[in-house]
Design brief:
The protein is mostly helical. It contains five helices and no strands. The model has no long low-confidence stretch (mean pLDDT about 85).
């Protein structure tokens, strides 16, 4: 595998995982803390559609490029280990999702413009879901 392809696959792998994890956290906040079936379903749908789009990349091939020990950006930030409640958890993960979707969109332009366009649509859906859920936090008591 050429170095450029491997690096591209590393970016795609890391951001795919980051986006899916963040979507799952947002989904669970909506499900278990806000009791919002529509938002829960929205995040679940986004997560599954992300997998559908990136499934074309042969995710097992992306795994071959993963280099956790050699990743110079792998640092745990002390502030990410503390959260003051579910609202903060939700917004941290929502931001993670949006950033990851943007990175995926940009780098997929190298592999397949159609896939990049699909990621753009998912990113805008994430923006809308975040706005909907943000309004729900104002109506529930904070833990």
């Amino acid at each position: 595998m050429r170095r450029i392809e491997k690096n591209l696959d590393r970016v795609l792998d890391a951001n795919f995982n980051r986006a899916k994890e963040g979507l799952r956290v947002c989904e669970d906040v909506c499900r278990f803390f806000l009791n919002q079936p529509r938002s829960t379903a929205g995040y679940k749908s986004l997560r599954h559609r992300l997998t559908d789009v990136l499934g074309s990349l042969k995710l097992k091939e992306l795994l071959k490029s993963r280099d956790i020990e050699g990743d110079v950006g792998r640092v745990d930030l002390p502030r990410s280990m503390r959260r003051r409640g579910t609202e903060e958890i939700f917004f941290a993960n929502s931001q993670r999702v949006k950033e990851s979707l943007r990175v995926l969109e940009e780098f997929l332009k190298i592999k397949n413009v159609r896939w990049a366009g699909s990621l753009r649509k998912l990113r805008y859906e994430a923006y809308d879901l975040e706005k909907t859920v943000a309004a729900k936090f104002k109506t529930v008591s904070r833990p």
